[in-house]
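Study this pair:
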Amino acid sequence: MTPVPGRGTAAATLLLNATYEPLCVVSSRRAIVLVLAEKAVSVDASAELVHAESVTVPVPVVVRLTRYVRVPYPAQVPLSRRAVFTRDGQTCVYCGSSATSIDHVVPRSRGGTHTWDNVVAACRRCNHTKADRSLAEMGWKLPHPPHTPSGAAWRLLGHRTVDPRWREWLGLADSVSA
C-alpha cells in the first residue's frame, strides 16, 4: 500500500539527478513514491511524516535519483507576465515604483517583438505616458537592458517561490529569489 500524504504535503520537492544537479520540481507525493521504489533517496526531509499500514516516511524536501538521467538542455524560460515582474523585482524599470503592467521597449506597432529582451515591467503611469513611442523619443533610458533569465533556478522554477531548503542545491544566495 502506498502512503497517502496529508493535506500539508501537497508541497513541492526538488528532484536532483544522481550527480546532484537540479532536474525539476515534483509533488511530495511523487517524491515519496520514488523513495519507496528505491529510485531516489531523500537528501533533506521535513519534520512531517506520512503514515501507511506498515511504513512511516518523512516527507522529502529534496530527493536525489539513484541513477543518472541524461537531460536534453538547454530549456528556455517561458515568457509570462508574472515571470517578467519577478525578473524586474516587481518594480517599474522607468521610475522605480510598483509595477502593474508590462511594456514593450520597442512598441509592437513599430516592429518590436514579444520576447524577453523587449519586455519590461512598468507602472501604469509610465506605460500610459510612453504609449507607442520609443525611449529615444521620450528621452528615457533603461537602467539595464532587459535579458532572458538564466540559471538552474529560472529553468526549474520560473516565477515560483523558492523553498529556502532548496537554495544550496540551486546555487542561490540567501537573499536571491527566482
